[in-house]
Amino acid sequence: MKAKLAPLVVVGLVAMLCSWATSGPRRVSEAIAQQSVNDDLQPALDAVNQHFAARWKSEDVSPTPRVDDLQILRRWMLALMGTVPSLEEIRQFEADQQPQRLERWLVKLLDDRRFANYFAARLSRCFVGADAGQFIVFRRDRFENWLSTQIQNRTAYDEIVRTMLGSKGLWTGQPESNFITAAFANDDLDENKLAARTARAFLGQSMECAQCHDHFFAEWKQGQFAGLAAHFGQTEVKLGVTDNPKLEFKVQDRKTLEDKVVAPAVPFHPEWLPANGAPREQLGHWMTHSENRRFERAIANRVWGLMFGKPFIAPVDDMPNPPKESQRDVLDILGADFRSHHCDLRRLIQVVALSQPFLAASQSDAEDPSIVERQADEWAVFPLTRLRPEQIIGAMLQSGHVQTIDQNSHLFVRFIRFTKEKDFIEAYGDLGDQEPVDRAGTISQALLRMNGEITRDAIKLDPLSVSSRIANMCRADEDVIEVSFLACLTRRPTAEESEHFRALLADQTKNRDRGAKVEDILWSLVNSPEFSWNH
After folding, report:
1. Measured distance CA(486)–CA(318) in Å, rounded
2. Are 116 and 149 contacting, i.e. CB atoms less than 8 angstroms apart?
3. Secondary structure (3-state) at 415
4. How far is residue 411's CA from residue 421's CA, in Å, rounded to a whole number?
5. DSSP string for residues in 83-146
6. CA distance 43 to 40
7. Cα(343)–Cα(296) distance, rounded to whole angstroms?
């Protein structure tokens, strides 16, 4: 008797879950409805939007209309979490009809640990590089976990930077010290590598050319770079990261070929250096000094790039000198607000995510290509950029599940996601700290998505898969198509798209059941160009 009843119990459970997932909850959770919104964002948003309004008027371009809320949700989740909304989240979002829905959901996403984890992984690429490093003394996982906790706890960004630069201790017990040990290899700490990465990550400046000669185009001189590197000259990596005041930093004189001692120095505004403290601590305070516009502009530009998939100024780590006060741009507006609010990363993200350029549609109605190009140049249209490998696999895995895959998911689900993400990124190609180029992926990448095991597992029919739930619970063909589009593209189909897939579902000549046809629809959507772009 029990053996006969078990399948019925499973079917009943699946049916209950499917019904909820495809029709959606009737009430939004109280936690979301009561989410607090930072009311003082408006002055910063007004300043950003007014800046672009004046810019668009000056360049005689019109911004594209505001995109619908579902597409904004998709953009946010791809940028903040590296995935698309689940059907569960979409139903909750659409059921929420309370005021300030977008603002409250943005706060909710920023409170989610998925955001802290994903942003920590992205920022780690610029802080400690993309290389594996020397495993004995470098633990990326420990560093990312530490950084994620700082982001989750809303630790001020300038404090995070000072902590990394002045870190001491064992790389496992004091994970922030992995910022230093990432530059350790073959029993040697590369001070030049640390100096170059520090300038790129925290100032948005490429200075390493000055390691060997005076920079040809920028103001950096070889002596300035050596002075910056000298701040790490007393650093030792033995039983942990320590400072040894007896050590001296030496470089070879180009003319005499003899070694000479270089004292710690900075490339500009030496008056910002504090009088006391170890060299690395002094560097941290100089770097984050309240008058250092490069520091705040660098993080504003980096966050802009993480949100849009394209930095405001490219390359993100080789920015020009800050403009004059009379020519202040949006990075100065964002940076000043960021600084005046205790270097709060979440606030900076909120201002960018709610700005008019971010909420603009990605498709222009202009017929003249030159106008479209000007709109793109002036951020009057949301830029189209390819998704990063981790965003593609995150979207693929989430599209195959009705419920949200997060820190509360079953351990088995999280383990499967971790292993599949790792395998996919390795096969697809890890971009490191670079952003995708504005072109389609390679043939091998397309084949991996079309024929790979991960795609098959995401859409195959099994009792708990999204394919099975859609096939079993959506009785009307229109519902099958709509739910499939929501799961994969976070939007509803157009009339033309609905007509196309209705014909597929109604076709009886291929002698294929409904479930197999749902698989075909999902496969088509996952492999569509739209799926792998950020619009």
Report:
1. 39
2. yes
3. helix
4. 15
5. SPPPHHHHHHHHH--STTHHHHHHHHHHHSHHHHHHHHHHHHHHHH-SS---TTT--HHHHHHH
6. 7
7. 8
Q: Tell me the per-residue pLDDT of 468-484, one tens digit each, with 9 for 90 and over.
A: 788 888 889 999 999 99
Rounded CA separation 48/37 (Å): 19
Distance CA 506, CA 498 (A): 12
Q: Nearest Cα to 33, choosing from 112, 109, 105? A: 105
Closest C-alpha among 238, 34, 255 to residue 247: 238
State the Cα–Cα distance between residues 163 and 311, nearest whole angstrom: 26
Q: How many CB atoms lie within 10 A of CB 508?
A: 6
The amino acid at residue 35 is Q
Rounded to two decimals, the pTM is 0.88
pLDDT digits (tens, 9 = 90+) for 54-108: 999 999 999 999 999 999 999 999 999 999 999 999 999 999 999 999 999 999 9
On whether the CB atoms of residues 208 and 191 are closer than 8 A, the answer is no
Residue 10 CB partners (closer than 8 Å, separation 6+): 463
- List residues bridging with 237 in a β-sheet: 241
Instruction: Tell me the three state secondary structure of residue 349.
Output: helix
Helix, strand, coil shares of the chain as percentages rounded to 5?
60, 5, 35
User: Does residue 332 contact residue 312 with C-beta atoms inside 8 Å?
Assistant: no
- Alpha-carbon span 437 to 486, nearest angstrom: 27
Percent of the chain with pLDDT over 70: 83
